[in-house]
């Protein structure tokens, strides 16, 4: 090679390096491709058309509802409307029960203050902030109904009520601040009688700079009597809003014609559909005034409320499900409030008031005597919270309802030389889709949480969310294997990251063989830490196997071994938590943003400190707009491994908003993006496992682990119920949290809990001693050594399989709490399980159950 050739080679190499560096810099600045978030907004955001004709009342052949008119009816329900108060009522033709949007006897409530009575009379309660962050509330009774600021129109099978909340009058600004002498004469004075014209003309005076321009004399007009006369004169003359806008613009008056007082226009639609009441608020048509921004909307807070004589409970979706007994007397405890699908992780607050179970389902209900209602949030569930409170605190009514957060909120700390001030920030862009709640009505034996579970289950079946399992004779056995674990190390005081092999593929194969040898065949193995540098793996757009735990052929051999006896391998991946800032993930462009516009970087939560632990490794939240690209890239690489199963660590559990200025994504929009990705992955991997699946993920999951088996135990609640399990049993295989790493490692009680929830056994194992996890991010897995647990796990599985093995495709018909610590579960086909958590034996309907024991179909097992 001559000198010129060598020079060309060096130049070409240098150019290539520069181009690669420039490309990486471009990627790092621009990030991975994003989808258009608007495409995932619910497209049915336009309100149902309202007829031009006045509201037509229907003839009512039934007993009707006193003080109300019939506006719609179907084969079961009749919808009534009060013209004065805008409240509605639903009459159930099957049972004769009437459910009211507002308590009938609220005016006689001696406990409620005047303000509380306004709230009791409202269908909406709107909370909003001004530009300084001051929070205010508008119950629509006092801010709209009492002032007759509403209209109503007919829609298909229902009505639409349009509310204007707040004072929309302009006051003195309804009169032009400046107006030409010619236009005052032409538009106003010439159309008034002489006396009124002189009175009006005297309140305008020529300006110094231009006598042809007249200025309003505010000192005189500000008096209410004078203002009323002037407003009347301009109205008589036919002076319009357009005239005012023209004069303001012509004379350079800014802000004139716009009220500086808070006001909002909000519509509520009520319609009957398939034997249910459907309530919709089209958020795209909300109008806000000036600087005022809506934060939350409480919808029908007192629908079907129960008074002090009520007997029953409210169902709330806390964890597996919780009941709040009506009038339980816990007036010193805080009311129940919980965000649907858990708190938004896009919250930069280091501390949190309480760590609790999540609310996995967008449902709530109330039972009162022999009747009940049950509600499902069908649209806007991603931005919803459920609130419930008992009577005896602020008023006499037990009530449960949904609240919708139209904007994100956060605190901004402002520092000066002398002090720190916290300012409440709201995101600029509100959610613009619909919110919609469907109310069902139950009576008699169906008026219970068991009846509510059956009803919700049937609705999901009709929507093709739940598909029945085929008949099975053996329970699955779930095991969560920790493979490669990332760990900090140092050499000569220089820190670096290394990967620790806690379970290799060969060792996991040995586990599977041992279980099969002991008669445990359907082993469903979730394997965490197999690619990308351990459990906290790199951005999953690249799939590089961790050599510390084995080769590709050994991974495939493990999968084949499990499939031999009806099991499966589920390699685990996290799509929404980004654990590393690498060349495939740029936080500045790919991470979500807080309301404060900071990059969403978080730390693991430490319950002992009640705050995020900044001594641990941080992670980022991936923007939902980038999720489709990341999922597609991962799937392309993962397909080459030829594995049939996949475990989703966070995709069915986490919903993250993104408040980036150029791309605002609310949680409801994020939910729709996530659902699309779940659907794509299910098509590629029909055997999909989801951890702690929220209800929107059920339609894509064949296996769910970390199912809630308890609640947060809020002080105001009274009972835990397995509502989650009652809905999905017979339609997917599932397990609660690993038995050996839960707070209660009493395997006997764990067995009883599995029998109550119909859940398969689940363990988390490492082949190596769990002591090796010390000083890693996974030191909480301190009791995972496989050799210590395997014999007990096999024995427990055989007991559970004997009871539940033939019930996997059966529905749970009923769950009853016979007494404290004693429950009975009844399945389709007649099988019942009586579980006694107490230390002493109990006798129920002639059947004796020993202490911490169970009876199936009347025979001890």
TrEMBL record:
Bilayer-crossing regions: 7-27
Keywords recorded for this protein, A-Z: Membrane, Transmembrane, Transmembrane helix
Protein name: Uncharacterized protein
Native source species: Paenibacillus amylolyticus
The organism's taxonomic lineage, starting at the top: Bacteria, Bacillati, Bacillota, Bacilli, Bacillales
């Amino acid at each position: 090679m001559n000198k010129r050739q060598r020079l060309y080679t060096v130049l070409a190499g240098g150019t290539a390096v520069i181009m690669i560096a420039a490309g990486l810099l471009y990627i790092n600045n621009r990030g991975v491709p994003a989808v258009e978030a608007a495409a995932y907004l619910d497209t049915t955001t336009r309100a149902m058309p309202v007829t031009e004709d006045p509201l037509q009342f229907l003839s009512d052949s039934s007993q009707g509802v006193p003080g109300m008119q019939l506006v719609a009816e179907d084969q079961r329900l009749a919808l009534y409307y009060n013209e004065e108060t805008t409240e509605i009522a639903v009459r159930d033709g099957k049972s004769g029960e009437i459910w009211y949007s507002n308590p009938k006897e609220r005016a006689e409530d001696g406990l409620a203050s005047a303000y509380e009575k306004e709230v009791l009379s409202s269908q909406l309660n709107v909370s909003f902030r001004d530009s300084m962050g001051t929070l205010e509330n508008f119950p629509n009774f006092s801010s709209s109904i009492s002032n007759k600021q509403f209209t109503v129109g007919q829609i298909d099978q229902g009505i639409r009520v349009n509310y204007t909340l707040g004072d929309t009058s302009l006051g003195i600004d309804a009169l032009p601040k400046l107006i030409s002498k010619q236009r005052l004469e032409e538009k106003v004075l010439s159309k008034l009688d002489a006396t009124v014209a002189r009175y009006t003309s005297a309140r305008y005076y020529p300006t110094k700079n231009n006598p042809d321009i007249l200025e309003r004399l505010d000192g005189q007009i500000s008096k209410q009597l004078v203002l009323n006369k002037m407003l009347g004169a301009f109205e008589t003359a036919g002076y319009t809003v357009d005239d005012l806008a023209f004069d303001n613009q012509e004379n350079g008056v800014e802000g004139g014609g716009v009220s500086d007082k808070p006001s909002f226009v909000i519509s509520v639609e009520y319609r009957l559909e398939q034997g249910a009441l459907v309530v919709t608020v089209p958020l795209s048509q909300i109008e806000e005034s000036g600087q005022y921004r809506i934060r939350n909307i409480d919808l029908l807070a007192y629908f079907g409320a129960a008074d002090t004589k009520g007997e029953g409970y409210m169902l709330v979706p806390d964890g597996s499900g919780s009941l709040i007994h009506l009038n339980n007397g816990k007036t010193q405890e805080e009311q129940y409030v919980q965000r649907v699908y858990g708190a938004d992780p896009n919250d930069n607050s280091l501390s949190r008031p309480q760590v609790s179970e999540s609310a996995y389902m967008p449902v709530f209900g109330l039972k009162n005597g022999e009747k009940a209602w049950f509600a499902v949030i069908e649209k806007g569930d991603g931005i919803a919270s459920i609130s419930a409170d008992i009577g005896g605190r602020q008023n006499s009514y037990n009530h449960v309802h949904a609240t919708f957060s139209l904007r994100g909120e956060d605190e901004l700390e402002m520092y000066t030389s002398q002090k720190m001030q916290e300012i409440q920030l709201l995101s600029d862009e509100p959610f613009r889709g619909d919110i919609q709640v469907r109310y069902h009505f139950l009576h008699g034996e169906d008026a219970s949480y068991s009846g509510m579970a059956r009803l919700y289950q049937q609705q999901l079946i009709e929507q093709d969310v739940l598909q029945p399992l085929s008949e099975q004779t053996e329970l699955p056995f779930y095991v969560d294997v920790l493979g490669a674990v990332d760990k900090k190390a140092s050499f000569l005081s220089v820190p670096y990251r290394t990967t620790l092999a806690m379970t290799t593929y060969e060792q996991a194969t040995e586990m599977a063989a041992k279980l099969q040898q002991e008669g445990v065949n359907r082993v469903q193995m979730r394997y965490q830490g197999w690619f990308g540098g351990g459990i906290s793996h790199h951005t999953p757009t690249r799939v590089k196997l961790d050599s510390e735990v084995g080769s590709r052929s050994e991974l495939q051999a493990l999968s084949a071994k499990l499939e031999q006896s009806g099991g499966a391998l589920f390699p685990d991946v996290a799509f929404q938590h980004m654990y590393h800032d690498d060349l495939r993930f740029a936080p500045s462009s790919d991470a979500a943003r807080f309301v404060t516009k900071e990059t969403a970087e978080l730390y693991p939560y430490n319950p002992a400190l009640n705050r995020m632990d900044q001594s641990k490794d941080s992670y980022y939240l991936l923007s939902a707009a980038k999720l489709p690209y990341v999922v597609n890239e991962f799937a392309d690489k993962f397909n080459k491994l030829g594995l049939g199963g996949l475990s989703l660590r966070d995709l069915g559990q986490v919903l993250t908003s993104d408040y980036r200025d150029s791309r605002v994504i609310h949680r409801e929009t994020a939910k729709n993006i996530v659902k699309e990705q779940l659907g794509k992955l299910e098509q590629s991997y029909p055997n999909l496992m989801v951890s702690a699946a929220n209800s929107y993920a059920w339609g894509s999951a064949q296996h769910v682990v970390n199912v809630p088996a308890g609640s947060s135990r809020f002080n105001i609640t009274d009972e835990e119920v397995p509502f989650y399990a009652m809905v999905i049993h017979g339609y997917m295989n599932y397990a609660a949290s690993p038995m050996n790493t839960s707070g209660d490692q009493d395997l006997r009680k764990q067995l009883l809990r599995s029998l109550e929830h119909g859940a398969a056994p689940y363990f988390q194992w490492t082949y190596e001693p769990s002591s090796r996890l010390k000083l890693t991010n996974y030191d909480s897995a301190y009791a995972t050594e496989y050799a210590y647990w395997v014999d007990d796990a096999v024995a427990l599985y055989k007991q559970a399989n004997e009871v539940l093995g033939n019930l996997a495709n059966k529905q749970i018909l009923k769950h009853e709490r016979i007494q404290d610590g004693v429950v009975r579960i009844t399945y389709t086909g007649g099988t019942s399980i009586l579980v006694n958590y107490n230390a002493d034996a109990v006798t129920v309907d002639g059947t004796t159950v020993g202490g911490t024991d169970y009876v199936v179909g009347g025979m001890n097992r």
